Fold:
Amino acid sequence: MAEFSAESIKVIAESIGIVLPDHAAKELSDDVTFRVRHIIQDASKFMVHSKRDKMLTWDIDHTLKSKNVEPIYGFRAAESIPFRFASGGGRELFFNEEKEIELGDLVNAPVPKVPSDAQLKVHWLAIDGIQPSIPENPPPIGKDLQKRDSSDPAAKIIPGTAAHPQPPQTGKLRKELKTEEMVKIKDLATHELSVEQQLYYKEITEACVGADEARRTASFSTSTFRTKILFFNLFFGLEALQSLSSDPGLHQMLPRLCTFIAEGVRVNVVQKNLALLIYLMRMCKALLDNSSLSLERYLHELIPAVTSCMVSKQLCNRPDVDNHWALRDFAAKLLAQMCRAFHTSANQLQTRVTRMLTKALTSDSTHLTGKYGAITGIAELGMDCIKNFLIPLLKQLGEKLRSHLETGGPGSMHPYASGQGASSNADRVAAVHIQTLLVKSCVSALKICRNLPDVLDQYRAEFGFLGPALHNGVSKARAQTAAGKLHELIPAVTSCMVSKQLCNRPDVDNHWALRDFAAKLLAQMCRAFHTSANQLQTRVTRMLTKALTSDSTHLTGKYGAITGIAELGMDCIKNFLIPLLKQLGEKLRSHLETGGPGSMHPYASGQGASSNADRVAAVHIQTLLVKSCVSALKICRNLPDVLDQYRAEFGFLGPALHNGVSKARAQTAAGKVQRAPGGGF
Amino acid sequence: MENSDMPVMISVSTASVGGENMKSYSSESQRKPHGGPVLDKDTAVTILKYLKKKNLDSTLEAFRHEAGLIEPIGDVDLEDNDASDDVGVWSAYKTETDPLDYEATYNEFKRFLGNALDLYKHELHAMLYPVFLHMYIELVYNGHEAKSESFMKRFGPIQEYYYQQDITKLAMITRREHMKHNDFLDTLKSNQFTVRLSRDAYSVLRRFMDEKRAKVSVLLNVVQEHLYLDVYEGIPRNKEQVETTAGAMNGEAMQQANKGKVYYGLPKEPDVHVNLDEPVDSMLASEGGTSSAAAAVTTGAEDEASKPKKKKSKKDSIFSKKTKNDPNAPPVNRLPLPEPRDVDKKEKLRAVRESMKRITLGPDSMPSICFYTFTNTNVAKVTCVKICEDTSLLAVGFSDSKLKIFTLVPTKLKAMKKAEELTTIDKCADDVYARMMDESTAEQQKQLVGHCGPIYCCSFSPDRTMLLSCAEDGHIRLWSLLTWTCLVIYRGHIFPVWEVKFAPHGFYFASCGHDKTVRLWSTDQNQPQRLYAGHLSDVDCVEFHPNSNYVASGSSDRTVRLWDCVSGSCVRVLTGHKTSIHALAFSNDGRYLASGSRDGDLMLWDLARAYLLARLDAHSSTVYSLCFSRDGNLLASGGLDCTLKLWDYAKLAKEFAAESSAPGAATPGTTPHNPDVRMGEEELLLLGSYPTKKTPIIELHFTRRNLLVGAGAFDGAVVVASDISAKK
Structure:
């Protein structure tokens, strides 16, 4: 039996500020366990009399009340409170999540809707002892039972497992037999359908694939009373397909319906009747969606039919006009749904389907339309399949597509092509479709399994003809996903750059490195995601310049802004940094030479400390400015570098810059000399 | 409403009444196991305590003097309250025995049972549990904590499965402090556990105890103090026979408990004859406009001539029992009943007319089942549903203390006009009843508010003008369905009231609840007429005998009891259920009783001989509703496993009748054991099983024409049994 451990008691005591000695906790835990058990025992009585089999908080409340204990108010919940589970450090913990609720939100929230009142509904549970198959009643044979039947046909023979309700008509017969001789025999499946069921079958099949277009969607009525009850949906005049997807009593007709679909596909693929094939697939989908049916036993009929609709060479009479691609896509979706629903380690359904599709894809004899079907089939099966089966084939497929798209089709390679001209046109259309499909389905997989950067040449080398299209798709996709997150990332990165203080000891810790790194990151983002639409770089630059020119920005913040601008490239340095150099120089001078203006910094807490930190910052800024501006100045200023000019132009920083530029010029010149000893000189 | 200020008052009164009553119960129960002198002292101490508490010093002195109590003892007792309690209540458990002895003794006892001849073995086996029980209590009481734990661990699991629930409760008690004010233990110690033994088995036991007197002194003590060995002359019973009647919390019923005669027959209904003659049609015709049976009248004039004859013949078949004077029926005036009014006569007439249209059910003509489902019950859960006798009204109780009445027929629910308007009505008009009603209040459903706790049961009066309801607040309320107000609050139960039932003849009603009592009330008195104490745990359900003279009750102590309304005594104790009982139904002839329990078992009892006749492993979860069809051919059962089942009762009844008329079938108590019980015949008797979609079935009702009506609340959260098995 579960009990409260002494540790629990201790923790609970601590939570209200009491420290318990061990023996007291033990004593208490024993007592608490006893009381709680006692209460729960009694609460179960309240539960039973409320006609439930799940205990609710109310039951505990009532028990406490009956024991003359004040109930714990405020813990009422109509539904069970979900327990969360957490484990770690070898301990397992169950707790219920308590969210903090903002009282203001609660008060201002609109009043929740009044729960709807209890309603009384009536239906026939049985008519003359027979339970009708209406939505209010459970399906005659549950889905799990159908499944069990299909997986273990012997289950019925073993007594005890056949605990499902017998259909009353046969049940009575069986009982009489039992009294005579107590031998358990597996019931022979009744294969004959009742009159009503035959009628229903006829109606449904005619409605679904019959010539009468109106009936397919329009309501159809049946006359006999029993049929109305048995097939509730028909009675209420719903669509045939909806009837198939929601009627609970179809399991007896299922084999016939499946055969109907299989045969229908076989005939109509030959006759190239696209419309009927589509309706057959929709029937198949409806059956698959019916929650009371288990199609497991009929997969051997349905899967070939569905696959036919995917990979057949020709599904319609005018392949260049009719949209048979949609049918292939629909069938592929259906197949994927089946694989998901019925794949087990025993039947290896998905493996077999994939193998079949891959074979069709690699085989030379498959027509392009068939290849399309195979590709869409694999694509629907999910990311893993695409990665393992489709991507390795991309180059090969690309070559084939190239031959169709660029040369107008190899012609002789396709033994099925009837006429050169017509074939090449149809093939071209098919090739275009395949290309679109491949790009669409592979992009998301590639995006995940390939690392940045996406180099076009790599793509071309790897995927051949499809390389450029894929590269384009992947980069677009990346940009889209990343761009979506920028509004969160950029403020974070910027904060790391321009915050006044990023560490506890600014004069010791190297927060400058963080600022530099963040600046690099920001620059990379700007390069990657800048578009004319989002004007990312412009906005970032504007923001940084503003920080730089504003008087209220602390020196460390200015450092961040400068390094940010510097990372954005030569142009930015030239346009935004160099014009400010003189102004910045003056500020630096005041810190470096006079020990800081003090009064200018309202945040500085003490004169001495501030001036020291500021001095360090000023030095850092100076170094940074010189480093980043030198290369720009070297390019945009002509020789000769006159010190006075520099001083006049850049003020305090002039000499340092002049020094830097001249050194840089000398270096480059020396490098040139070294590299080309026999060149100019 | 009128009760806006009620809750506070109610809770106060409940608490105070509860405290006093409980005290008086426990002191009463203390008396039983001990002899005269002990009792006197206990009582004296109690009185002394009371006097001391109230500071009535001079009275105290006088009492002490008069009672001849020696001062010091009295004082010690008064000071040390808890100790005195313990001494009084638990003295029987106080021993100086070495705790190691218990396990050894119990082992010895087990060995003895194992080696006993097969003939006696099974009867003696019934002693295993009570001995275990009381040895454990002794161990705990004497403070041998570790020993008691190992004793429980070692021998707890080997007890019969039907005692495991009690053992779980017992295992919770691990210290002496836990024993105080523990309801369950109080019950165990104040009632001796009954074990029925044949004379031979008893002598075998005696021999064993005599031989090893020294070794098994602990056992001897337990048997003497806490066991009642009910010895009978005859051959010992076999395993099945012992098991069928085992299972109750306190052992089997004693033989003499079931010796009394039960008037299970139905008395002749005096007014049926009169009504069946000529005036019938005219009365009905006048009533036809308002009644829901209006369709019945439209049969046309051409049938008119043939009707009387037809009725006569049919009536004979229906009321054949009543026309012959049933020798087993109670005298008509045994239970005083108010004179039937005109309305009642009319109602009876309607019932008879309706019943003529009913279908005879059987395996070949199965009933249709109409099911009422409540939806949107996630906030306020449905706790009870009742359908009135003529299936025109449905009452439903919710966990949020509301009570709702729905009409199931086109007639809407109307309230009576106000008093001043009523005076203006022409009292001689034919449709005076219709005129009394206020048309503007017509509704499909009406709500009754007044209780302050989940409503656990409700019951319509036979004339459908009143409704009783009982709730967690311990009150029973009588509501008028004419004015739609509360008429009376019956206070008496001190804990939640689980069920309330109107008598089939009206006027009386019975209730039962958490306080272990069944109470019989009449609507005109706010004090119970009878208070039946005897159940050892909650009384979970109660049902009136069709002749209104008896009340049956089912309890969590796993017994069914039958109480006499007139004498107030318990006339039957039926043991055999292995879990608490939640549904009861009398067969139409009043001789048999069906009961359903929490584990889904159905049992059929013969009240005449106090026998268990059949046990059906019917459901996988609690049975909440049982109903016999109007022709008595089918039994319908439904419960928490969301399945409604129909049983071929006619077949069973035929076999029962053949048995009871066979030679050797005798009057109650003459044969010591139960005849063979039908078990495992579910497949032969089950006629149909109708699962619902996650709707537990909490009410079943056959209409007068034998249409089965069921009701329940849809609960998406219920896990259906088939789901569970599928998961496994």
Summary: The CA atoms of residues 233 and 243 of chain A lie 6 Å apart.
